[in-house]
Amino acid sequence: MEDFENLCKKAAKLAIETDSITTSTFQRKLGISYRRASLVMEVLEENQIISPVINGIRTPMISDASAVVIKVPSRLVSQIERPEEPKTVTKNLAKFDEYGPEIFFALDRKQLVLRRVTLRFINGCIISPNYLVNALRCGTSLASRLMLALMDLGVVGFKDGKFCLLISDIAEFDAAILREDQIRHNTPLELRAARLAVICNGIRGAALQECFNIGYSRANELMDYLVDHKVISADSHPDRNRILFVATAEEYLNNPPVGA
After folding, report:
1. Domain regions of the chain by residue span
2. Total Cβ atoms within 10 A of residue 43
3. pLDDT digits over 8-52, tens only?
4. What class, spelled out in words, does domain 2-81 have in CATH?
């Protein structure tokens, strides 16, 4: 248990120093499994060291980690003391050779999927959410999130009414993906909501709630914002997607207002 408490202290220091509080960050920086990183996240939140998710992000609630005292909730003790599954040396030797060690070990599973998709786009595959649905055999919700991640990273853009590739070499993706948490943290939620509306060809509040893990009120604020900026229509039906205004949405994405 002492080792786990020390791990939590390292995570608290990391959260304050990097201003990036995600499970994947803890995995990469602390060299731990997803299960362990999730437990660390839960303990830090219980100890009021980090905030709950607000507007899709967590923030530090303290400024100095040197005096942190970790109290592990009794309900988590059995999970913490459960032995970790043995790690394999590599996830897949063919992928290890393809990516190289620096990228292979730095990225989590989702990021490796994004990298493979980007390579396909560079090689001429059609850039669209429907392509991801078919290529990855996934649902539209997951495909939309992956597409949003690529737009957040500056890999995919939207011009002339269609999606386009903004990079020419996979090295540009590799440079961006290692800063994914920082990039997402610095991107206003309003801009990400507009991107999602374009990806989904229209949007409703429930989709914003699900994608960004936000409440009903915040989702309505974003919907009103998108209506005001003529990204979507003002249809008030709660169970129907608002219509996307392609031309004004494209103008908004490529020339967002200051602060968005």
Report:
1. 2-81, 94-254
2. 23
3. 888 888 888 876 678 878 887 888 887 888 888 888 888 888 888
4. mainly alpha
